[in-house]
Amino acid sequence: MSTNTHYASSMGALRQRLGLGLILGFLVLLGLALFGDIRQVGQVVQHFDWRIYPLALVLTLFNYTLRFVKWHYYLRLVEVSTLPWWQSLRLFVAGFPLAVTPGKVGEVLKAIWIQQKSGLPVAQGVSIVLAERISDGLAVLILSTSGVMAYPQYWPAFASIGLLLLGGIILSQMRTLVMQIFNWLTRLRRLGRLIPPLRQFYEGTFILFRPRSTLLAVSLGSLSWLGEGIGFYLILVGLGMPATAHTAGLAIFILSFSTVVGAVSTLPGGLGAAEASIAGMLVLLAHLPQAQAAAATLLIRLATLWFGVSLGLITWTFSPDLLGLKTRQDLFASPTREQGVH
Predict the structure, then answer these.
(1) pTM for the structure as a whole
(2) How far apart are CA 168 and CA 171, in angstroms?
(3) HEC per residue, the chain
(4) Is 278 within 8 Å of 300 (Cβ atoms)?
(5) What is the pLDDT of residues 234-293, one digit of tens each?
């Protein structure tokens, strides 16, 4: 099978996995509505101040903008200088729907796209995706700090995740030790062919996790995720919660910590885990009725995760080349027998 045919076949499998992710997302949203009683949730949403919602979407776009700046900065750090910013933006936004694909296929696919457009080895592209995730993880943990201090029952999970992320960054900078490990692995014949891509992956992480670049990335991440936290605050206010500093702090903590929970769950897009965390914390910490908590969770997930997925799918319709297709129409065609699905 040729490389192009294999790539097209893989894209057919990707579309199927995306379909499964979308079905799971629908079931999660339905579960949320049932959690709060569909009729009561409908009534809460009906009385929501919809003038606020566009502001929440703008704040989500603010988040995406700063995260794109970080993404493009990472590309420049690994010397991808031939990719214009608009192509970089296309790859970045096209990656949004991949968040809801089972198996985290999207993580590798973004690296493949970078390789196709710039020639960067896939292993180094994967290091960019990893750096994105780790810097975002540290950013939302920083935003969660004040909430964890106020609600110490969340401290064990907070500390465990923080130490894991920091440990990975510290290890990436211990070059002498890592090189010694690679030299030892080289002697093992069965692992010999894996060493070159592992070295490429490590070289990427070594560059991306240097102190200066990490500080800049985490700072950008903190500011970008703060935007979504403020958007969640506006949604809570639109549902009738008081417009106070306490509500704002609670909104930022709940959304940030739930983002971490969703990421650690390894579920596609954090589906189920993030929603359960947001709704549960709203009931336990904000003392909201279940219907109001469910409505708030639905509104913020639609304004963040599903808004991003929609933008990504729109980008896909104008980027058939990223999906191994020749025309836009092929995006909606079923895989043929010749293509196969693997």
Answers:
(1) 0.89
(2) 5
(3) CCHHHHHHHHHHHHHHHHHHHHHHHHHHHHHHHHHCCHHHHHHHHHCCCCCCHHHHHHHHHHHHHHHHHHHHHHHHHCCCCCCCHHHHHHHHHHCHHHHHCHHHHHHHHHHHHHHHHHCCCHHHHHHHHHHHHHHHHHHHHHHHHHHHHHCHHHHHHHHHHHHHHHHHHHHHCCHHHHHHHHHHHHCCHHHHHHHHHHHHHHHHHHHHCCHHHHHHHHHHHHHHHHHHHHHHHHHHHHCCCCCCHHHHHHHHHHHHHHHHHHHHCCCHHHCCHHHHHHHHHHHHCCCCCHHHHHHHHHHHHHHCHHHHHHHHHHHHHCCHHHHCCCCCHHHHCCCCCCCCCC
(4) yes
(5) 999 999 999 999 999 999 999 999 999 988 887 777 889 999 999 999 999 999 999 999
Is 213:77 a contact under the CB 8 Å cutoff?
A: yes
| Other Cβ atoms within 10 Å of 75 Cβ, number | 22
Q: What is the dihedral of CA 66, 68, 70, 71, to 10 degrees?
A: 170
Q: Measured between alpha carbons, how far apart are the two ends of the chain, in Å?
A: 12
Average pLDDT over residues 190-197: 79
Residue 183's pLDDT band (boundaries 50, 70, 90)? confident
For residue 284 the two structure tokens come to 């336990």
pLDDT at 52 over 60: yes
Q: What are the structure tokens assigned to 242, written together?
A: 């008081």
> In this model, does residue 321 exceed pLDDT 80?
yes
All residues at 6 or more sequence positions from 333 whose CB lies less than 8 Å from its CB, including other chains: none
pLDDT higher than 50, residue 340: no
d(CA 72, CA 13): 28
Tokens found for residue 70: 């970080």
Tell me how far apart the alpha carbons of residues 326 and 320 are, in angstroms, rounded to a whole number.
Answer: 6
- Taking the C-alpha atoms of residue 266 and residue 218, their distance in angstroms, rounded to an integer, is 21
Token digits of residue 225: 């995720």
Two tokens at 170? 């510290």
Residue with tokens 């030299």: 183
Q: Are 296 and 278 in contact (CB under 8 A)?
A: yes
